[in-house]
Amino acid sequence: MTLPIDMRAVHIPEPGGPEALRPATQPLPVPLHGQILIKLAYAGVNRPDALQRAGAYAPPPGASPLPGLEGSGHVAAIGPGVSRWSVGDAVCALLPGGGYAEYAVTNAAHALPIPEGLGLREAACLPETCFTVWSNMAMRGGLKAGERFLVHGGSSGIGTTAIQIAKALGARVFTTAGSAGKCEACLGLGADRAINYREEDFVEILKAEGGADLILDMVGGSYLPRNVKALAMEGRLVQIAFLTGPKVELNFAEVMMRRLTITGSTLRPQSDLAKARYAAELETHVWPMIARGALRPLIDSEYPLEDAAKAHARMESSDHIGKIVLKL
To answer: N or C: the chain end with fewer CB closer than 10 Å?
Structure first.
């Protein structure tokens, strides 16, 4: 494969709103030991990209300064020490950054084959979301068949994925969303109960059901004490983001009395080894769900790379249902 010297990309000259994303020409990245270079066909758009654009989520040391944490395409080059992949292989991958470009490098162990039955467009929506959901809901949260599971933001990329995986694991799935249309979409994905948080109180609904055994939350703020109240005895709360803030007053006596567990994580700063372990888990447990039709990415919209600012505006409007992708 003949490689160019430069590539199209979208960068962030200065932090700001969606308009801070600007088309640019960048040097082609070079894969180092254990890395692969991917010629991207599609890239997923995620909330952490918007945080980085706003100057609130710096890339880890050594990562590309370009936004973009997931994508799909074909292997264009391999670095020393890589044995699994060959040039031309179709892959989707978790990226340390750099997805808003024609080419990106990533650890070879963070790439996965395109799941059976999916194309590159759908596969680009999987890595960031599936790594996050599986590592927090299944591995950290320990969701089991028969348990009551609540995910907030059910119509988001994380939410639509969590609903389907939790249902495939045999859980009773509850979710919150902000409109009747979004609630209907969540029910269509397998949720047993979709709660319009503008009209209903998720705490009262879950308490009437015996409480949630596991809650996956990205809202934070005032939801934190309400989540605690919504948990069943020995329930678990896993926090993965703070859309409304990380600080709140919380009565920990309730945590002690009902033997609750509060935990959480962020994906991007974790080690290459941890992410490789998550990738192996996905290939073993989640990719078969996709192959049998139990999990399908729900795509809201697609934009050309140069319109990344419009994609971010769409995401931050919260009008979308499912994932937003960039076409390279």
So the answer is: N
Structure tokens at 256: 């002690």
d(CA 74, CA 91): 6
- pTM of the full structure: 0.96
What CATH number does residue 76 fall under?
A: 3.90.180.10
Single out the residue in 264, 286, 309 at which a domain terminates.
264
Enumerate residue ranges in the chain where pLDDT < 50: none
Radius of gyration of the chain (CA): 20
Residues constituting the chain: 328
Residues 6+ apart with CB under 8 A from 78: 31, 35, 36, 37, 85, 86, 87, 108
109 contacts: CB under 8 Å, gap ≥ 6? 34, 272, 275, 276, 279, 280
How many angstroms separate the CA atoms of 29 and 123, rounded? 22
Distance CA 320, CA 181 (A): 11
Question: Given 264, 284, 317, which residue is the final one in a domain?
Answer: 264
pLDDT in tens, 108-127: 999 999 999 999 999 999 99
The identity of residue 81, as a single letter, is: G
Alpha helices in the chain (DSSP H): 47-53, 120-123, 127-133, 157-168, 180-188, 202-208, 223-230, 252-257, 272-281, 287-291, 308-317
Q: Which domain holds residue 167?
A: 130-264
- The residue among 40, 164, 155, 52 whose CA lies nearest residue 105 is 40
